[in-house]
Each structure stands twice: as structure tokens, then as C-alpha cells.
Amino acid sequence: MILKEAIYDLYELSKYNLHVHSYNSSCARIEMTISRIVKKAKKCDLKVVAITDHYNFRDFDIIGNNNRLKEEISNDNKEIKILYGAELSAYGVNKFLDPIEVNEKLDYRLYSYNHYHLDFWEHPRDQTPRGYVDHGLQILTSLIKSGRADCIAHPFIGRFINCLADKTLVTREMRDRELGDILELGKKHNVAWEINTNAFLADSEFAKRYWEIGKEVGVTFHMGTDAHRLEDIDPRQVVDKLMLILK
Ligand SMILES: [Zn+2]
Ligand SMILES: [Zn+2]
Questions:
Q1: Assigned CATH for 10-246
Q2: I need a surface site. Which of 33, 52, 78, 141 has the fewest CB within 10 A?
């Protein structure tokens, strides 16, 4: 585990930004070089940064890219711990895009299971909010039990389900009991749950339930801003907003 114990202080959590894209993600800005990311992270007093580029193609050379990023940075960076990971794809029930040899070489394995906007993602047969809740829970169960994941990216929040008009339909459909059970399964298998700052702000009602139930269960939360630009690296700039949502 990246955090030795569960932290429920948002200011303390915001010293770890565990979801940052480098220029090796095509959706990220070209300015996202490792040296600029580290420079910015130092200014923000971050302790740990995880580089999590998208792994959306089987022939994507994530390990080679990460090694090249390591070479680009000078050895004088002692203050900030950098984890060279990936945002991996659990694109269906028991379906993982990354070969296990790739998975094992990563410092940090952040998994998305709800990138439904990508054309290779599996959809449920029943494309209603209930269908997506059940499908999501099935993917998560298979992923958590596989031992592949360190953390789940932007869980539950359906901003990626582009076939449904209202993005909160899926989270409103999800029962507290279902949420508690899956969070508990993650805890049992040492899988952390992301506080994705964008997703939290987009669905504040659900964010509060997730936070409350997660604390009750005793899960480990990881904060991530899903930064694609330098200006989004500092999680502290949204902590006050998060506090208002979660109070
Ligand atoms: Zn994502
Ligand atoms: Zn991301």
C-alpha cells in the first residue's frame, strides 16, 4: 500500500496526487514533461506523485515510456517520490487489457473500469442505470479479486457513460448496501479507492455517500486530480470545495 494507514484528512490526502498524465497520454498537454511535473509538484509540497498514462492499446509501450521518463529527470530529485504506473483498463468482466508481465513491472496500478466512451469497452446487455450498476459491480469484483489493482480510478461516477443523458442516474441507482459491500471487498484485498477530484465535483451527492460509507468501512482513499495540464497538479486548490461537499 502507498499509504501506510487510512487517512481521512483531506489536506493530508492532498499531499499525494496519485493520478497524473504525462505527455505520453495523447489527451494530455505536451507541457506534461516529467521535469515540469516534478517542478510543479515541489511548489505544491506534494510528497508522492503517480504517473498514470492511459493503457488503451495492447501494443502501447508503457514500460518503455516510463523508463524514458525516468531517464529524463535529473538525479537531484530527492524530495518527491515518483511512482511510474499506469491507468489500466478493466474493460469488461474478467477482461484486462494489460498482459500480466506489464502489470507486474508497474510501480502503481490504477484501474479504470468505467471508460465506457471507448469503443472496445464492454457494455451490459441491459443498458439502463440498473444494468450499468450491476455490470460495474461485476467488473469491479473480478478486478479486485484478480490482485492486479492498487487503486480504482473515478469509481461509480458515471460521467463516462455517454449513452445515458443524466450522469448521476447510475450513482442514484446504486444502493448504500451495494456500495458498502464493494468497498469492503476492496479493503479486504488491499485495493484503494480514488477520490477523483473532478468526479467528486461533478456528482457531489454521490461523493458524500462514498466518503461517508468508505470511512465507515475503513477503506484507504487515494487522491488524484487526473491532471492533464500542469495547472491541475495541485490538489490543494480544490480541497476547500471538497470540504464543502463532504461536510
Ligand atoms: Zn480515467
Ligand atoms: Zn486519467
A1: 3.20.20.140
A2: 78
